[in-house]
Amino acid sequence: MQNETLLAAVDLGSNSFRLEIGRFDQGQINRTEYLKETVRQGNGLDADRNLTLEAMQRGWDCLARFAERLADFKKIQVRAVATQTLREARNRDEFLSKAHEILGFPIDVISGKEEARLIYQGVAHLLPQSDERRLVVDIGGRSTEIIVGKGLEALHMESYRVGSVAWSMKYFQDGQFTARAFESAEIAAKAILDEATDSYRADGWDVAYGSSGTVGAVSDVLSAAGWAPGLITRAGLDWLVDRLIKAQSADRIKIDGMKEDRRAVIGGGVSVLRAVFDLLDIQHMQVAAGALRHGVLYDLLERDEGPSDLRSTSVNRLANKFGADTVQAQRVSKVSQQLFSMLSKDQPAAETNSFLRKLQWAAQLHEIGSQISHSDYHKHGAYILGNTDAPGFALPELHRLSLLVLGHRGKLRKLEADFEDRFFIQQLLSLRIAVILCHARRDPDLQGLQIEAGSEPARLFVLNYRPGWDTAFPQSAHLLREEILAWQKTPWTLILSELTASA
């Protein structure tokens, strides 16, 4: 990454959408602009966990304003991530499709653990480097992330489905504050967070840090009331709850430091924060400057940067864990990438390289299901990828990877994939043919083997081979003829053609 490059992170949170823009300089990212809008998508989920049209429209309107600011940014300079509300929303694809179009950049829905990892990265990068063991807590609108780490490394992380928006809607209906409501909200939060007691014991960390909305809002109020700036204590939390109960409702709050957009969700946020303090035996918590959006910015520096990309580490870990045949995986990877390069020769190099790396990962993992059972191992492999924690990956990336693993063999017509996505189809075809050519688990003879794609909008692929190749390798030729039949049941056509002697 060149110095002076601008980078942008878009955080689609349950309560607020945020845009952080920073300038890269000598390994650090310095803020140049920060925009925040209270969207409250988290309270727009109906009983069936669908986002209402009003909630979606609020999000689209906000992203349209962000898009104007990002108009001159390139794809490699921007990453947008979505968290718990869009993890839950059953109609998230409807929202994301239009949101992508409006923003102009893809939006990654990330898992809870990936959100926790990125939060820790954001907090750690904005703290002085030290050997202290850090407990980081981030209470969002619909989820709470808890992480223990050291330096820049998150050692243990988890996400819990409890947050300021969800708890305010459930326990402080109509913004009413009572002692009973706080007691009920804290008991319910503890029931969900209880498993954190063993994982985040007080003897496992040295300093507690709080990140983002709820913690920042509580700190602002306590500081305005004369408590130590940037520090939250149990006594301070008790004082705040007492003030809220005396106010009786959100619209009657008259407390210095309380921002207008926090009134409606402060009850839920404070009850969750008190539950965390009690369960983890926290005496005081420092307010951290870093947050999810900062972690996303720093993560941008490493994505698509070869071995330093955390996703490569995750793929290697999965391959080792499930005993993948490394030699065969490398063989299939090499052949599939050669084929894909032929198919995408007219595409921009940066875009092609990104797809090649993801194809490499699919090849590395295509046999991980064999550890469970050789029968239908491709289905087992896809299931593993659909239900694993893979640091660095967004949920759509993992889904696409699982589809490649599922589709690398067997019937295509039952594959629930987007057959209009030409790059995905080229990846899938390259992987399937590579697996066929490497079926004997030795390096195949690729001399004279060429593959080409028909000009758009034609959905045609032609695999050419040298004269006599089909006779020299009859099993490979047979499997390729079977492959032709498989593609006939899709919108795409594969043709096997013998080159003429002059060619």
Give an account of the 3D structure.
Helices cover 46% and strands 17% of the residues. It is built from 19 helices and 14 strands. It has helices at 53-69, 84-88, 92-103, 112-125, 164-171, 179-193, 196-199, 212-224, 234-247, 266-279, 292-302, 310-321, 326-343, 349-365, 377-386, 395-407, 422-437, 469-472, 474-487; strands at 6-12, 16-25, 28-38, 78-82, 107-109, 133-139, 144-150, 153-160, 207-211, 231-233, 284-287, 450-453, 460-465, 493-498. It has a 6-stranded mixed beta sheet, sandwiched between helices. A 5-stranded mixed beta sheet has the order 3-2-1-4-5, sandwiched between helices. Strands 12-13-14 form a 3-stranded mixed beta sheet.
Number of domains: 3
What is the CATH-assigned architecture of the largest domain?
2-Layer Sandwich
CA gyration radius, whole angstroms = 26 Å
CATH topology of the largest domain: Nucleotidyltransferase, domain 5
Strand order of the largest sheet: 8-7-6-9-11-10
Number of strands: 14
> What level of helicity do the residues show?
40-55%
CATH homologous superfamily designation of the largest domain:
Exopolyphosphatase. Domain 2
Salient structural properties:
Nucleotidyltransferase, domain 5; 5-stranded mixed sheet; alpha/beta; 3 domains; 503 residues
Describe, in short, the structure shown:
The protein is an alpha/beta fold and 503 residues long. Helix content is 46%, strand content 17%.
